[in-house]
């Protein structure tokens, strides 16, 4: 699941890489989906996700605006993560030659 979308951010070009899809109706909590996706990208240095971000409010919000064009963005272990109301989980990486 390595879909990429380009967006302009702060004058630079960034790529969002789709790393997972969360099912808000499924048994897994959002933090489990994010941890699984980030673990496949690289380690969180052994820290639990909740030391970086509280995903419960994000999950409640995104569940309440289903099929809406809404998302939440936060930083986890020096990466920017975006979760959309449709369940798409993406991480942002700088395009080669671009700096933050």
From TrEMBL:
InterPro entries from the entry? HalOD1
Give one Pfam family: HalOD1
Q: Which residues form the Halobacterial output domain?
A: 34-92
Protein name in the entry: HalOD1 output domain-containing protein
């Amino acid at each position: 699941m390595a879909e990429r979308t380009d967006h302009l951010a702060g004058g630079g070009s960034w790529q969002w890489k789709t790393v997972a899809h969360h099912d808000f109706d499924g048994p897994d909590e959002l933090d489990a989906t994010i941890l699984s996706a980030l673990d496949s990208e690289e380690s969180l240095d052994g820290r639990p996700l909740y030391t970086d971000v509280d995903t419960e409010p994000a999950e409640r919000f995104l569940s309440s605006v289903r099929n809406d064009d809404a998302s939440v963005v936060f930083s986890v272990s020096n990466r920017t993560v975006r979760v959309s109301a449709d369940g798409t989980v993406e991480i942002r990486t700088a395009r080669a030659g671009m700096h933050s």
